[in-house]
Amino acid sequence: VQLQASGGGLVQAGGSLRLSCAASGRTSSPYMLGWFRQAPGKEREFVAGISWSGAGSFIAVSVRGRFTISRDNAKNTVYLQMNVLKPEDTAAYFCAAKYYTGPYYYATASEPNEYVYWGQGTLVTVSS
């Protein structure tokens, strides 16, 4: 699967952005998808993950209550809605995917090395 992240930009603190991750290629095979971010000089950080059906999702504690993840498989797109943005949310945001290997499609993953396919980053800058 190929992934294309978009929707980043410059926003004031307290504002909102919605990131999109569009998938192409072998999108009919079930895959989980995660969002990660990486600020300059910092390690890549898990933000949110979602299962194939969307019924399973996991949001990092650092953004819980402000960010939500959703997906529309008909459009092969996963969204990251980011509200009440803070300067510390400034980072490059990446989406990543992993095909399921078993019969169940409800799991999500939060470690970067669990994902196989990565999109390019989209930059989010939050000004104070």
End-to-end distance: 37 Å
**Number of alpha- plus pi-helical segments:** 0
**Proportion of beta-strand residues:** over 45%
What is the mean pLDDT? 95
Give the SSE string: EEEEEEEEEEE
Largest sheet: 7 strands, mixed
Shape: globular
Let me know the number of strands.
11
Based on CA atoms alone, the radius of gyration comes out at 14 Å
Q: What structural class should be given to the helix and strand makeup?
A: mainly beta
Task: Please write out the topology.
Elements: E1 2-6, E2 9-12, E3 17-24, E4 31-38, E5 45-50, E6 57-59, E7 67-72, E8 77-82, E9 91-99, E10 117-118, E11 122-127
Parallel strand pairs: 2-11
Antiparallel strand pairs: 1-3, 3-8, 4-5, 4-9, 5-6, 7-8, 9-10, 9-11
What does this 3D model show about the protein?
This protein is mainly beta. It is built from no helices and 11 strands. Strands 2, 4, 5, 6, 9, 10 and 11 form a 7-stranded mixed sheet that branches. β5 and β6 form a beta hairpin. The protein starts with a strand and ends with a strand. The mean pLDDT is 95.
